[in-house]
Amino acid sequence: MADEDILGNVTSPLSASALNGVNDFVSGFLSYERKAANVLVAADVDPEALLANIYAGFSWMFLEAAGAEAQARIYLDRARKVQSRANAREGLLIEQLSHWVAGDIGRVQAIGETIVDAFPRDLASVKLHQYFSFNRGDAPAMLSIAEKARAASPDNPHLLGMLAFAHEQLHALDTAEVEARKALAIKSKEPWAQHALAHVMLATGRVQEGVQFLDEAQRGWGDLNSFMYTHNWWHKALFHISLGDEAAVLDAYDNHVWGIEPDYSQDQVGAVSLLARMEVAGIDVGDRWVSVVDKLVSRASDTLQPFLTIQYLYGLARAERAEANQLMLAVEDKALTAEGLDRTVWQQVALPACRGVLAHARRDYANAVRWLSVANPRMQEIGGSHAQRDLFGQLLLDAHFKLGNWTIARQMLEMRRTWDPDGMPVNRMLRQVNLELEKQPLKAAGRSA
């Protein structure tokens, strides 16, 4: 009888320990649990375990850092040596890893589509395809790939979580909530469904409900990897910002958002984003930028993903580090040398966004307005979620506010109140804006007198 993974996908022959490593990767990847990393040990113990080595290569590529390709190539080369044993699905996975290491994400995605069409129970491939689509801001593709797998796994909570988040990114909030609650009815601790539901609650102004929901959910986060653990706490902190609960925001940051895996890209940008949002909301963050920026210095030439780079840059500039200039030069070079779709994104979106956040961090609010006004309408193209990209809207609002552009600031604040009607920072800023606007006729009358 052929070996199968935990989802029923046939594998080439594997030892018991290698199969356990593969299953830990598949289940851990889908559930954002630390056990996914066990596949690295399994692959090192058995260099001829084909699928374990493929997934070990994937694991290195998820690091999103310079040097990951070299490490992933070690496992790719091992898989190549025993490729004659590969079944059809594994052969496609080898090619997918090869193109990922080479940086050809378009080809990675095309292969992923082929895999899911032929092997719809391969939910790890569905998840991987969503990962790349998310990084490119392609929510329709996120939904399409998950729908392809629905018939084969209609009651899988991880797939339902993927469907929920795809719908949320498409602004289909009611459908997103239905799918998320289906997932949670099957597996109450499914973290991606919890995450999708937190997005829905944030987008619909259900702030107190969001706090209560995540208060309960966080009891089951003990096995999560650093990304999912810190990111769901990041969402909880956003609710606390809206409520004006500074102590809870700082507690979330200090104990749950920053410091879990401080060398990891997603943990770093989560910290940068939350510190920036706290400052826009009027919260004194003290010296908290220091420990983050100490880790960002190594990102001074990192242009792997524009969504990450922009936030690295903001952190470096906000802490007044000279490396911000180095990273800005790297962005300008990337805008000139990138190819195809990447070149369009870097030239027309990432470059002006970087100029805008750099200006804001340096308190050059006029240039922050200038460049963020160019970039923000197209920010979806750099990836990230609506909630994550809202950082750039907040920085633009803050720049207008600091410049005294009261009419524009009022329009932006009123727009924000459509999804955060009771938010304390929003309403506090709006009160000040309205007071300033009320003064203008009085000032004009004084001048005419």
TrEMBL record:
UniProt-listed InterPro entries: TPR-like_helical_dom_sf (IPR011990), TTC38 (IPR033891)
SUPFAM superfamilies found in the cross-reference section: TPR-like (SSF48452)
PANTHER family: TETRATRICOPEPTIDE REPEAT PROTEIN 38
Record-stated family: Belongs to the TTC38 family.
Annotated protein name in UniProt: Tetratricopeptide repeat protein 38
UniProt keyword list: Repeat, TPR repeat
Region forming the signal peptide: none
